[in-house]
Design brief:
It is a single chain. This protein is α+β, with helices and mostly antiparallel strands and about 150 residues long. The chain folds into two domains: about 110 residues, S-adenosylmethionine decarboxylase (4-Layer Sandwich), CATH 3.60.90; about 30 residues. Helix content is about 30%, strand content about 30%. It has three helices and six strands, in the order βαββββαβα. A six-stranded antiparallel beta sheet has the order 2-3-4-5-1-6, with helices on one face.
Length: about 150
């Protein structure tokens, strides 16, 4: 069974660029990066929030992108969700990375809707037998104790 979507999460640490809170540079970079990534930009909203935090929400025909910049920390968190097999979210990350210049990057790829085999689609129920063993063992001890007292 094929996956429904890919979800790419990226943490960028030690961003040295002044572009962390440059709305126009972010807007232009996102626009170009989305085009290079074989995705279609529908809308984008970039705002400066409390303090100097910047949030960008990008609506794509194939999914969405969210970017959260924390200039005082030199940190950026990026989520890219795409349902298209032809999209290249790694290119979007590379373009953003080029303007933010992080010292360290942590990337996580998630397969969304990856059910594997048909049997994997059933919810899994986890049962712990340890409490049942404890009850059984305690019961056995009580029976031993009572049998000793009757002698």
């Amino acid at each position: 069974m094929k996956i429904l979507a890919r979800h790419l999460t990226v943490d960028m640490y030690g961003c040295k660029s002044n572009n962390l809170n440059n709305l126009e540079a972010l807007r232009e970079t996102i626009k170009n990066a989305v085009e290079e990534s074989n995705m279609t930009l529908l809308d984008q909203n970039i705002q400066i929030l409390e303090g100097d935090q910047v949030t960008a929400l990008v609506l794509l025909h194939e999914g969405h992108i969210s970017i959260h910049n924390y200039p005082t920390l030199g940190y950026t968190a990026i989520d890219i969700f795409t349902c298209s097999e032809n999209s290249r979210p790694e290119r979007t990350v590379a373009a953003i990375k080029a303007i933010l210049k992080p010292e360290k990057t942590k990337t996580t790829y998630l397969k969304r809707g990856d059910f594997g085999a048909v049997k994997d689609m059933k919810p899994k129920i986890k049962v712990s037998v340890a409490p049942l063993r404890r009850i059984r063992n305690t019961g056995a001890r009580v029976i031993k104790l009572l049998s000793r007292k009757q002698r």
